[in-house]
């Protein structure tokens, strides 16, 4: 499997990460950090998917650094699975809990109002063809939806390690944000399901086969596991206020704990028994001890540093960040082109590429346009051929054994030529070396 970063490179990238002021977002220095974080994110996913040593997680834990919303939440989804990552985050977990609450509340609200995006993210080609405000808004809504889904994963991992975190984190989830009731809303509305026909799986809306319609998705399982942790762990039960409102909300879960669901997640049988007991009893109210509650450090610092400066920051951003010169745009394009290496990016895609000729799994791509994949299989082609250097057949009139790429070339040639010319033109305009 291709590698994005070596261990030493990753360590250098993480050590170079620095706190950015709100004013500097979008600056060249910010873009450089964005490039570093994108590479770290890709390497973390590659290591996790291949069950290799997750040295990116280890470095973040040991060096204590961690920024760029969509990329960072993706990186957190990978590394927060491990208990030591939650412990190393320290007081910053409070900010992360607040962040997850904002995203999940937004997700639940949009689901209730029917505002969940109905399609996949628009590709760069579609954006360049249309570029309307509506399309950009649709792209923004879809990105927000994807970020919220990943925030659910992060929250689930935090609840898994709740015993090793501070009392302030527990209080934040149960008392300040009433996270169990937020999760009940997600169970009721299932924003990642579109009826029984489509589910949001691996970053895309996918049609569900009839035999899989009752199967729980990854996101269903994460909501249930988070509820299980927050309601059944002893520390949580002592802290949570089972008042009449919270009790009525939690009892709604009984209608969703069917035999089909419990067969897939047997641990939910304990939750079902707890809810049955909750329906006929009134748990003791939590003790009202005197607690000095911590404030979310990151959020609080941002507000304090930038108070009464918002208009000045916006004015600076308009003139400096949103008005780049042609040379700055070319430099950004060049750096991003180097960051998003096609060979590495293919390893991050759940669906393996298909051969353009026979449909088998593709193992190599067209070297000219980089847009079509082919397998290594040889197929019998019953045509007269004497061109041995093209198809490998030595005998005229024999059934020639030919690779899919050679067989598919007459059909692929026109499209290949157009794509290659377009890429070359773009590279010439931006002065990017291939």
Automatic annotation (TrEMBL):
Domain of life: Eukaryota
InterPro entries linked to this entry: ZMYND10
Record-given protein name: Zinc finger MYND domain-containing protein 10
UniProt organism field: Labeo rohita (Indian major carp)
Lineage, uppermost ranks: Eukaryota, Metazoa, Chordata, Craniata, Vertebrata
